[in-house]
Fold:
Amino acid sequence: MDRVTTAPGGVRASARVLARGDGRGGTALPVLEGEGPLALRRTRGSGAEARVMLVGAMSGPLGGDHFTVDVQARSGARLRVGSAAATLALPGQDKAGARYDVRLTVDDGAELCWLPEQLISAGGSDLRLTTSVDLAAGARLLLREEQVLGRAGEEPGRLTSRLTVRIDGRCVLDQELGCGPGAPGGWDGPAGLAGHRAVGQVVVVRPEFADRPPAGCVYEEGAAVMPLAGPAALVSAVAPDGLRLRRLLDGALVSLD
Amino acid sequence: MSRAALLVLADGRFPAGGHAHSGGAEAAVRAGRITDAASLEAFCRGRLHTSGVVAACVAAAAALGVDPGELDRAADARTPSPALRVAARRLGRQLTRAARATWPSPELDAVAALFPKGAHQPVVLGLAARAAGLTALDAAYCSLYEGVSGPATAVVRLLGLDPFDATGVLARLADEVDRAAREAVETAERVVTDGAGVLPARSAPLLEIGAEAHAAWPVRLFAS
Amino acid sequence: MHLDHHHEAPAAVSADARRPDGTRRALRIGLGGPVGSGKTATVAALCRALREELSLAVVTNDIYTREDAEFLLREAVLPPERITAVETGACPHTAIRDDISANLEAVEDLEDEVGPLDLVLVESGGDNLTATFSKGLVDAQVFVIDVAGGDDIPRKGGPGVATADLLIVNKTDLAPYVGSDLARMAADAKAVRGELPVVLQSLRSEDGVREVADWVRERIAAWTA
Structure:
């Protein structure tokens, strides 16, 4: 816990993972550093893949907290990062908002699966999440983000989530979702979420999409597979709750295989 | 500069193809999410503050002379739905034609040459405003207003909604359009110095998903 | 027209007779008329009559969008890449007269993708008697009415009936069953149209579209002269 610094009104914490091919067909993790709420564990992988779990040692982020996660997959790495539980955004002691910044970098010949459990925006919380992904032209990515607005029967907190994906320096996806009290008007209306309380996205980047773009499709009304302007596809879904959201995302993803 | 040029560009009868697009309203009506004036208003408000604001910032930046290619790439990244990218480029191409005939300009010729199948409509709208001698604020207003008037007009046709009610919706959104237009110009000025990365990226999930569903219908009244 | 301008510029702005590469574009003929008068059937018959001698394409404008295109596909009168459907937002007359941009794009794309073309037929969605095509979109227009719609339509006139380059009175085979007086329709049409031609046709008869096809051939000859 020595590197956890308490900012005025909140906790600053960071986690870093660096993965690279070990030259024997496996994946080495020369850097695996987490702290406090962002503790990391290496778990049993399969084949060439290394697996890492984010295991939150305390709840959060709370108002005023600032978390940073930095994951780099270097050439030859196959890395899968998950989380042991949902992340719960909670109100803090003071009125300050919380920040959670995720930065993912994937080099040529590397693959990253970023599959955390859902983010729950509890009533009264205020979180700004940014996920920024930089991929080399020959990198592969599977990224899932799920947001659940409010715990059962609860009004959601304020959540702003921005997801940016660059491939070979070119931005192919830049999306921001704002919801909860104080969000830009109409966020829960017929154009936004229309009362749905779970919203999620999956980004799939594969170099072979450059020559063979994936087909788009609509899956059960609430989800769509959308080829992006680059070798990538986005699955976007809304659902009444987190369970049904996961089912929609998983179901729609099948069309890409 | 002529203020009347703003009326020409903002006129719903300006022949640039907008009449055939519902801005997602046809899909929302079919899904039962727009049923009356109140739900139309909520739809328009959501559109205004998401894709509407993004488009207005792009239009204002183009009107300030930011590189159309850079803005077009930024618009692509902010439009994950391929159906909406196609619609935006079709409308951009139609607007290019109308604007070149109305306000001939080397910049419009250049964008037509660079994007033979159309640049994103807000990029062209900004260049059209420039060619007409209008300001970035004018471009933002045009973009924001057509972003809400399109769905309102479409819902009159789709639901038989009382046209007076639909016009009332637009009037009630006027203050929000004013604020959004001013903010769009502030953002566009930052784009001039800091690049297209500072453009907003606000998204409306059901606009994107609904557009994909709509594009797959075998029969529909509106192109998007 | 503007034979030598905008050669290096992309995409014509309006109805220029030359394409950006300097070649002459296809002749464009519009077909309009009330719902159910037989516009699509006439287009289908024209395609069958002319497809051996001309390079043809069709743009449909229909308030039910793809239905007319699908009819043409079902009838197999043209390969699918030669038929484009334009959505009109429930306003077909707007798309052929007031805001022709989507139709212009459709005809230009057809020339780019399946060209060179001799003839593009632009079919309006079924509309009312006042709907006419813009001269910025088509070089000539045909108005199609039918005997079952009432034999007083030619007398009532209206822009379509009075000013179209060709008026077709369709479904003459039905006249005895609906009590329409063909002679009176022809006389009334002559009264409002003066020298402009009128064709009475039944597509049920052998070679029923021949007269209209001949009129199109004359137009093509004049266009390419």
